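User: quick one, fold this
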Amino acid sequence: MATTLPAAVTTAQTGPGRAEVLGQVARLADLEESAVEQMRAEALAAPTRGVVAYGEYQSGGWWTTALMNHSDSGDPHDVVIGDGRPQPTSLLEEMPATARFLDSLGLNFMYVRLARLEPHSYLWEHRDYAELWETDRHRLHIPLVTNPSAVLITAGARVHMAAGSLWRLTPSQAHGVCNTTGPDRLHLIADVYADDTYQALAARPHLRDGDAVDLPEMTSAERAGLLERAGQLAELGFTEAAEQTLLRAFYTYALPEGGAYDLITELHEARRADADVSRWRAAKAHLLARP
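Assistant:
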């Protein structure tokens, strides 16, 4: 098995890593600029934006398209992730540079997709792989189009996955994503099984200065003010807006795990809205289920 990086990848410079987030997100390698440019051009020229899936995880605005999946028809709109040996979809067959790059990695893929996050869109705090915990797997991100407001939130920090690098995410840990101002964030995402080739690729995880920025703790006054604003929205009948106001606190403050969901529960307890309390307790349990 290969123990070195493929020709399309060069080792990145090691930076001063952050222990508190390094286990959850890290750069693995720098990519050749020409390879990224070719894949970016193919992704932007794709004839479909994809489909909106996993609606319970998002505010809307997150679109995915499969490049390798388990559909016998090769349908790129079949985006429900599962275990198995994937096949190229009809979309990947139209993206030769991307196909060559994926092949050059020599990895054991589980699923490969394009993921687009529109401006003013959020993936709420969640865990992935809860139903697939039995096999050692990892998630790789190749940012193709991004902007400074498109960030990952994990371990109380804000991380911008810059273009030009191959990144590893540990999605079984609680995390969320937002793109607050735009333009679109477009990533190539590959879920892979652990093997010797992956271990060689992932041998030098690191972060550079500025990759991760600590979020501030929420003060008691800020917490009270946030709940008051949400309560006012709910009293006016804008319940969903009230809930999303509290959900977005996850992207502003270093909350304890599930803290945004607890704020929503507290909001509805004060309103004596028992059905909403039960709904959000169930949502927290589902979205943050541990493998």
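User: anything notable?
Assistant: DSSP finds eight helices and 13 strands in the chain.
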